[in-house]
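Section 3.1: Structural characterization of target chains.
Under the original work plan, the team committed to producing a structural model for every single-chain target entering the pipeline before any wet-lab resources were allocated. The record below documents one such target. The sequence was received from the expression subgroup and is listed exactly as submitted; it comprises 308 residues.
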Amino acid sequence: MSKKLDIHAAVMAAFLAASMVSGAAFAVDEVEPNNTMGTAQRVEVGPGGSVEVTGVIGAATGTMAADVDFYVFEGTEGDVVTLDIDGGIKATGSGRSVDTMMAIFGPCPTLTVPKCMDNDDRSPLDPGSLSIRDARIGPYRLPRSGTYIVGVSSYNRGFNNNGTLRSSSLNSTSNGSYTLIISGVTPLVQHINIEVRPGSGEYAPVNPKSKGNIPVALLSSAEFNALTVDYQSLTFGATGTEASLLRCNREGQDIDGDGRPDLVCHFDTQTADFEPGDSEAVVKGKTTAGRAFEGRGHIRTVGGKRPE
């Protein structure tokens, strides 16, 4: 198998795994070091506006350690976000419990104070938690568009306004694993539906050696108007970065029968850079308002052998 196919398979596996968690939330693991605001781990929200992070403060077993975790995401003014810790407090015999504390930092109305809001215990008990000692913030309306940082610590090591901790003392619930769910965020990239070779079936045939073109329908939805696409921004192919656009039909056409006009564009087959064995095609672009979008469709390559 070629290196390129290895990359494609890994990307597809990660996307499918993420899509199966909590209604298409992305699922990621904590990556150290992320124990300062300057080293905060960047997380990307999924198409549904959510991301789930599996993390550990200190150590899940063994010797306790003084640790704190930070995560950074991009938010849009008006997003009503929820930051929810689940699984910190565990049932007896299910592992070490951690009594979490949490804060969100960002472009708050008071610019001299980065900390927007914090929480220790949250009542009433929310689904996914066994105790109100799993911290939770929100629903919280983001006051401005920009970069927000979520800090996760443990009792009694709350956050100062600048992100440092008020205490370094440890106790029996200072370390342990948890899940952080960030939801309600407007994704930076809008995910849309596409149909490669409309009418050809679920897996559209593509011959990588063909000198022809591949028609792709960008499907409108309640959240996306395909007729607002900036044609010149479109790229399409094996990775979605290939400059393969030939032309787009000027008139909309209802491809999927939902009553909304869709946009059919044509892309050069060879410039799309598919290889035998590829199973996914990616289109990327922007609307005339500057909103980035991405769509993925199934293909099956024909007319050639899979590289060894």
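The first strand starts at residue 26 and ends at 29.
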